[in-house]
Automatic annotation (TrEMBL):
Gene Ontology molecular function, alphabetical: GTP binding; ribosomal small subunit binding; rRNA binding
Protein name per Swiss-Prot or TrEMBL: GTP-binding protein HSR1-related protein
Species name: Clostridium carboxidivorans P7
Ion transport listed as a keyword: no
Coiled-coil portions: 15-42
Keywords on record: Coiled coil
Any one of the GO CC terms: membrane
Keyword RNA-binding on entry: no
GO process terms (BP): ribosomal small subunit assembly
Record-linked InterPro entries: GTPase_Era-like, Immunity-related_GTPase-like, P-loop_NTPase
Pfam entry (one): IIGP
């Protein structure tokens, strides 16, 4: 299957650009193709990490992982070409096991890539929205994750199983969305989690809620993840996210997350290519090439992401 960057290359060949500028853009595309995106997904036992992975990326991902990473012996490593998912064991079953798992999580968070930067680009902590006792999740966030990440914007907290937050009450089983009383309960839960993390660590994290089972707010979750992803790595998601339109339909309607997903991907790629093109013309008096590059990128991104409920029309 043709990748998003291949499509952009094809679109690039259709426009009239000088050879030096075109070569600079193509070189930048080649650099972007080599980027790796590392995501750690962690949480308490039963929080629904595997179902979250499958909803976001592919139905078979969590079943066909690459096994156990030999350096950690507990963290599963799934490689989806340029996306690498580090799936930690569920915590909360045994204090002794949790200490061992926490040690391995800390070791991975402190690993560096070849350029000396943190290997893990972001951490997604999946919280069980149906659980009353969230002690394990708070210990993981406050005592393991936050102290071992310098950039706190790389920490995401997502409350899964929002459909069961009130033991199933308040969930519309026909529309697969929460009713007003459940929405209010979930909003309060988000604020409570945010407050407890801030009071313990001084770090402000705004959680979101979703249901991997019923595919509710999956677009919001992906949008949340993309915004915390390093800018030049955002385009990596395009080729690997779940291609089932049903996954992306039901959201809280606070904003058009599908539109925002495409805007984020299109904007970051346009900026990267525009910067490369202007770099090739250093010393010359040139304006931005965004009016030229933007439609090129838009055509490629739109073609690949059009499956998301047909909601992209920009």
């Amino acid at each position: 299957m043709e990748s998003i960057l291949d499509k952009v290359k094809n679109e690039l060949n259709k426009v009239n650009l000088d050879e030096e500028t075109k070569q600079a853009i193509e070189q930048k595309i080649n650099e972007l193709e080599k980027n790796k995106l590392n995501i750690m997904i962690t949480g308490a036992t039963g929080s629904g990490k595997s179902s979250t992975i499958n909803a976001l990326f592919n139905e078979e991902v969590a079943q066909v992982g690459q096994g156990v990473d030999p350096e950690t012996m507990t963290i599963k490593k799934y490689e989806l070409d340029n996306i690498i998912l580090w799936d930690t064991p569920g915590l909360g079953d045994s204090p002794e096991q949790d200490k061992y798992y926490a040690k391995n999580i800390v070791e991975l968070l402190n690993k560096k890539d070849d350029s000396g930067k943190a290997l893990v680009d972001l951490v997604l902590v999946v919280v069980d929205g149906s659980a009353k006792d969230m002690r394990t999740s708070f210990e993981l966030i406050n005592e393991v994750i936050i102290p071992n990440i310098s950039d706190k914007n790389r920490i995401l907290v997502a409350i899964n199983q929002c459909d069961m937050a009130m033991k199933g009450r308040g969930w519309d089983n026909n529309l697969n969305i929460p009713k007003e009383d459940l929405i209010q309960f979930l909003d309060e839960k988000v604020e409570s989690v945010k407050k407890r993390i801030y009071e313990s660590t001084g770090v402000e994290i705004k959680p979101i809620y979703y249901s991997a089972l019923y595919k509710y707010n999956i677009s919001k979750l992906l949008c949340y993840i993309i915004k915390s992803t390093p800018d030049e790595k955002r385009i990596i998601y395009v080729d690997k996210i779940n291609k089932n339109p049903e996954v992306w339909k039901n959201n809280d309607n606070l904003m058009n997350y599908n539109y925002e997903i495409q805007n984020q991907m299109k904007g970051s790629l346009t900026s990267a290519l525009d910067f490369a093109a202007k770099g090739a013309l250093a010393g010359a008096t040139v304006g931005t090439l965004v009016p030229v590059i933007g439609p090129i990128v838009g055509a490629g991104v739109g073609a690949v992401l059009g499956f998301i409920g047909g909601l992209f029309d920009i």
